[in-house]
């Protein structure tokens, strides 16, 4: 008893002062970047810099504040932000790890050794400690789209949640956390001087970038925006609720939004998940809507993912019968009135086709496919409209294929721009692993040559992309260097297209607000 009490006391003290189990005091995690990429941006000139188009820094405030372990930041420091979670070794509570690994998870170890997490095997453990985000800012990211994310069904099946499963309440909590982080950095850098700056307009973004900071656009990716669920095909919201909800989101600073995500809702049908994941998500669809996905054999040139578990009579390729609803049409027009950016990913092709037709009729450029959840056959229409296509972070060959396909679909290759969507903290198990890219030599230069990037050191762990792969936000610059090398003779073109990403996003946004 006394021994256990003493061990607990030592652990508490270590948490407070940042001391490892060996007793050695640990320095705070480093950034390990000398210099600053793309230092010469001005308000009156096109921005040079990278675009991160899809990420989730605040997932631990979603899903009922239960499944995710670790935080992007904590006022008490890294030992509190990246502390291990007592509940996660239990198979009942670490349900996602148990599902992925097939066995009861062992206790994962984070700060200060990081023996286990962040890691590919622990998708519910934080991948975005802020020193990693700072590293990618110093290495060249100038526009960062930060999505609030949650899912009522996943929340309700988690036994140790600490807050409501209402998705809109979760969005409010995550936006509040993003504002708290912005203020947290201002304590270090001075009032209004922190590098993470939430912006509400493209003009504000250009001002922030000209000051050398990162312009952050808030987005929303939830399954039931405004409470717009569907039960037995009956919508559970109204146009009035949508208008009130959009007004609230806009006031919160949100400028980009998905209409549906994973499950059919009152706004649109979804693009199916494939394989066994699709079976599980389809079960969730039935849990939340009272109905399984309703598939048909695709008749046109567009198609959704082929899903398992249908009646066996529906031949592939599969398309969701559900498209854009009347409430979904209302939402798109209401978003256009506010100059908001419509996210087409996760819509069924029937819904995405309809949405694009509306946007085309209105010559509205504020539309994006940020992480490869749209049929690529729709890309030429989206790009012709002035929208953007960016790729989800994957191994080199796959990501470079995304880039080349989008470039081939662009109306003008000379002005084509690209970006990436990391999708960290979004239960994304497909991040590149060690050996899935060229071996890089440390230190290496940023795309513009102005920053020298070395291995990042956190506590007792030195991160090396060649050995670790892309396991957290801070390894994005390393992954991008591997992509440049793997692009071979196309490397200079890849660098040029990626370096135009931030400017392309701002021009798309400007076109949607200045009509």
TrEMBL record:
InterPro entries registered for this protein in UniProt: Metal_Hydrolase (IPR032466)
SUPFAM superfamilies xrefs: Metallo-dependent hydrolases
Range of residues in the leader sequence: 1-24
Keywords: Signal
Organism: Hoyosella altamirensis
Name of this chain's protein: Microsomal dipeptidase-like Zn-dependent dipeptidase
